[in-house]
Amino acid sequence: PSQQILQEGAESSRRQLLIEALVSGGRVDNITMVMGLHPQYLSSFWKTQYLLLRMDGPLPYHKRHYIAIMAAARHQCSYLVGLHMAEFLQVGGNPAWLQGLHCAPQKLRNLNEINKLLAHRPWLITKEHIEALLKPGEGSWSLAELVQALVLLTHYHSLTSFIFGCGINPEEEQDGGQGCRPPSPHSDSSPASDDSVGGSGGRDAMREVEVLVERMKLLQEGQLEEESVTQEEMATRFELEKTESLLVAPSDITDPSLQSNVLCFVEDPEFGYKDFTRRGEQAPPTFRAQ
Q1: How large is the C-alpha radius of gyration of the chain?
Q2: CATH superfamily, region 56-169+255-265
Q3: Residues marked as catalytic
């Protein structure tokens, strides 16, 4: 409810922020519209984005936007990819780079491995990954450049989650209203249309929930028949059932309907998230840095 989101005076604050967005960028994107429901948060977010993309720093502007594209493409978020492809061209980026990661300079391509790990399994990063990027030679990074690049990567990995979580659709002029929806590995249907918030994606999710509920009922019925089953054993069965259910998407499946303008920036697309710790398995060592 709006009364829970916007406090007294916040509506005028939000309006002022949206006017500033229109004046500075010539448009108000959907991220701004959604985040504007929390004006103070939007204001902090804007300052962060402005510092990362517009203010002085070791990386030239066009490379900052290209790194944003790489990060968003890793999570298959075509909304952000399209947004920063346009920004990349506006600040003088080479259009040939947008044909895919293979057309970018080696220096940017060297970020692929650490981008992949940061996006899906950040606990696997070691000091060797940092050393490899800083090592003198062709395509080497300075420490200042690498710090800014890593902040950009993690910032856009997180922003992708915000976009998917809020169900933000592309602006009509961006790419015809297609493609910010996260991939659905269990559905071969075409991308949802602009007004399909409760459409095929919602129906697929409901079916998955119904299947899981049915499985849980069967387990409970089985428990009544097996009185000797302990509470701990039942908890383990429920956890296993949930993990193996349709709600948990396998990491090695890529949605075939995803546009080529996203996948062209991704190498090793089948690499995805795996649980950090599993019962009975030794956890991988964590990399800690001051």
Answers
A1: 22
A2: AhpD-like (1.20.1290.10)
A3: 77
Place of tokens 């968003």: 72
Handedness of CA 32, 35, 40, 46 (dihedral sign): negative
Which of 248-253's residues contact partners 24+ apart within 8 Å by CB, and which partners?
Answer: 249/184, 249/185, 249/186, 250/185, 251/120, 253/185
As averages over each run of 10 residues, the pLDDT of the chain (290 residues) reads: 58 72 69 85 88 92 96 91 92 92 92 93 89 88 95 95 88 50 40 41 64 72 60 68 51 49 77 67 60
Closest CA to 157 of 214, 118, 127: 118
Measure the CA–CA gap between 46 and 60, rounded to whole angstroms: 19
What's this model's pTM, rounded to 2 decimal places? 0.65
Check residue 268 and give its pLDDT. Answer: 74
Domain ranges of the chain: 56-169+255-265
The C-alpha atoms of residue 223 and residue 43 are separated, in whole angstroms, by 53
Do 88 and 65 contact (CB within 8 A), yes or no?
A: yes
Q: Which amino acid type is present at position 224?
A: L
